[in-house]
Queue: 2 jobs
Job 1
Amino acid sequence: MKVLVTGVIGSDTHIVGNRILSMALEKAGYKVVTLGALTPAGEFIKAAVETNADAIMVSSLYGQGELDCRGFRDLCVEAGLDDILLYVGGNLVVGKQPWSEVEERFLAMGFDRAAPPGTRIEAVIEWLARDFAARERGLRRAEA
Amino acid sequence: MATAAALLIDFGSTYTKLRAIDLDRRRILGSGQGPSTVTSDIMLGMNAALADLEKRLGSLPKFKYRLACSSAAGGLRMVTVGLVRELTAEAARRAALGAGAKLVGTFAYRLTQGDVERIVALAPDILLLAGGTDGGNSEVVLHNAAALGRSRLACPFIFAGNRNAADDSMTVLGAREVIRTENVMPEFNVLNIEPARAVIRQVFIDRIVHAKGIYRAQEAFDQVLMPTPAAVLDGVKLLADGCRGAPGLGPLLVIDPGGATTDVHSVATGEPSVAGVIPQGLPEPRVKRTVEGDLGMRHNVAAVVEAAGLEAIAKDAQLTPARVTGLVDAIARDLERLPQSGEEIALDQALVRAAVKLAVARHCGTVATVYTATGPVTVQHGKDLTNVGAVIGTGGALVHSRDPLGVMEMSLAVSSEPLSLRPKHPKLLLDRDYLLYACGLLGAVEPEAALELALAYLEPIEGEESSRERTLTA
């Protein structure tokens, strides 16, 4: 069974959406390690190491996500999780910024997928299925 | 009519101590003490202690139980190995400490060749190998098992890591004695140290007691039940929880400042006492023992001064810093020396006060405020012990202090450090007769008698508040 680590990063207490996501992922057949709100970046990585997780899914709702997620992939590499699948989603930045720019920024930071506000859970579950399948074929992630 | 009596023995590192207990009247018949002679012939010290006891009692009664615990020959020396330092490595550490072990080394992540050599040199009595949640990382624990498997290390191993890696680990560990038990962390952030703790105690009884030559005194007792720190911890647990038909004291904290380390035990859930506080980090065991290896009144005297600050120690002892340094050097040169002069006594008191304060602060949890977009939130790390009902002091440094209250009050919360979750209004009790180990041993066979005995002999120490009340009513 694939193992996913979920949590809300930084000084962010918005737990409801993350909890719903975690429940849906569990229902979809994944083993979910839930870290909950107020989770420092390092905790995601420690949990992923110990549980041998296949993906880390970072939520951020309070607009500081860009600051909190800086260097996240580097931390993973440092811990030996070079190839772990990384997703991020929520209200990732402050103010009105075009999503394509925001997405590009997070992909450049080493995330494999970035989900804008209003992304449906079904879409995330489909991403996971396709990305894990792509990895079986030796790819980093699925095309789109 | 002959009364039923119990003999409770502590094979210590310096002394062999005896307590003879009247089981019917639940009181101490007498105490005896002899030297610790484990390294030569353990019976020499045991016979000396029995002769001492006989001299005090007139004659030795027939004992219904003769139970022993031991911290002789270095105690139960353990090395723990885990994966992530704050997760399975920490869980393994807690399992070992809870079993009464003396931790001589803790390792995390992949063991290097150097680590393995260090472990071999440490020559532990037991090695506890953990790493990975069940179904989680198996690669690192397997790597570590293989590295240790190739070494010359001959002590018993306990495997308490990822169960999916257990079979392969057993194979690479080779022909040595390995006991498999449940994972110390089966799920992420779920602590499961009881099974490992029980196995450690069993290995201690089956193997270590023999290896250390304690069995040579076998005709003098029925059984060595556990390491001394485990006996103290069992006594503390019985005192807190009570037993069938006899209530205990409820949540409590025990401080035990000693020559080499300062131990702190707590029996309390440690959950936040204030609504809305969010606990973070690894869940805390209800029965918890911490050992501060740098806080010892004799073997680590320089470290106590360094941790507390020379100025602070000097001020508390009302000595000049230069004088403190001189006296500390004298202690380091002669560890057996007991304080004689007024200055030495004042320094000892300042040292034990500092050690207790630091050790309790490290044992208890802390709160911190995190500012979020929706306002400030309080998060808690470790145990909230603000509401424990009692603090018990034990150990020679405290019992022989001329002002035990001055030492015990260092365990309390102070308004200048509001973020530290130390006890606020506990009863202060002194274990003047060194009964906690005896209570733990006797509790294994007659819990009610053990509980009643300990409750009767713990001596209340008046706190500031009650003395103030007394002044007001006088």
Job 2
Amino acid sequence: MSDLISTQDLTKRFDGLVAVNQVNFSLQEGQVAGIIGPNGSGKTTLFNLLSGFFPPSAGRITFCGKDITKIPPHKRVGMGMARTFQLVSVFDSLTVWENLVLSTIRFKRDQQSVQSFFFAPARKRIVVDDCLKSLELVGLEKKASARTSELSYGEKRMLEIAIGLSLKPRVLLLDEPLSGLSDHEIGGVLDLIHRVKKNFALVIIEHKISKIVSVVKKLSVMNEGKILCEGDPEQVLRDPAVRECYWGKEEENCST
Amino acid sequence: MIHTIVYGFTIGAILYFIAIGLSLTFGMMRVINFAHTLTYTLGVYMLVSLGALFKGYFVIAAMIAVVVVIPISYLIERCIIRRLYGESLDHTFIATFAIALIGVDTIKWIWGVLPYPLSDPIGEYLTIGGLTLPIYRIVIVMIAILLFIGLEFFFRKSIVGKIVVAALEDRDGVGCLGIDVDHYFSIVFMMGSALAALGGVLYAPISSVHPYMGLSILLLCFAVVIVGGMGNLRGTFVSALALGMIMAVTARYWSQGAETMVFIVMAIVLIFRPIDI
């Protein structure tokens, strides 16, 4: 199977610091991959490079066989690459509905089916249906008219994922989707991931390794900007080098 | 005192026309845009030239002057401002200030340094209960109120407005929706520049027209933006009218201190609500 995303010697330097160092990462169509690693290991920087928020210092990124290294973030979204952020990113000044409409209507506009200046097209059947479907998927349909600032953190996280889904991605990059959530909310997000993962490829950065092991088919461990080890999650987690750099620390954390 | 209040609202309205573009530019793209003075002053000088052409037709000359500024502002945004996105504030300050200075020299080269006298295009007065008020000033205030209502409608009801509101909050987040923020910023930039030109065109007949007129009013507009909140559209409206009124009332009792008082208010606001840049 051909790679959906692949990076070749992808590198990002911030002055003297090499945050991502010659990373060769690949993801196949429909694959669910996890990226773990200690704080500062370069996981989020890798996401920022993949999604175009940082230009790489060296190396290249291909998506669907096309070199996208110099393509701006919004065009990557148009090509089918959506992402969420470590700190949940939704628009507090808009309502839940408006947050979703902006992503949905834009998608339609790219398809040239909605060309209008005013917000009225948000009432068009196709947009309404898409938004409702996304809201129902994350269980926020009753809060559609609420201002986003009134949502709990967990609900905002769900809305952010719903926005990502409404962009109809070929790959969705989830940056620590479980961080800051209660056990109940974590269950909700994991259940959602299980329900949608067959529709597109997923890459999940997560600290809570035990939570995502059952979800991902491929696990990559990053340390000091490099991919230390990758492959089948069970095998990766048994790797002595991985246990030394990461797993051991988590055990320490758990015992405290 | 009624005269002072009308004068205050007039100044406030003019400040609002100019400040709205500054506020959006900073709020959305984090660019402190001194080049805004150029579009303001250019609008006025276009009015001077077109006024001679369309004698007695102030509204037509004013409208053309505002429209002419739009492609110029597009070029400024496309060629210079767009390169400053993500740059440090001092870089944007130096670059946009350079544009403003080049603009002033170009205006001096084309129109000369001597002030141009323009007269009140309406020249009529409204008498209510023994009070005589210039209609032109009342018209300026009315236009400002209509503009505020229009902008509220634009930002609440239009797709572009919603995208701008979202981008004011989180520019990268809007990019994640597949939206080209720079494209929408171009629209907002041109809109802000046209409003600055409108402010200049409306203010010119009741003030002095000279090449540095933009630079002198710009600092007052920055005070409006800081007091109203960067990117806060309603705050900018309230702040512009309030500071305009403070200027007018201060000028009534202490003419030299009118502008000083604006900056004192700005300093007090900064003490209690420091800006996050």
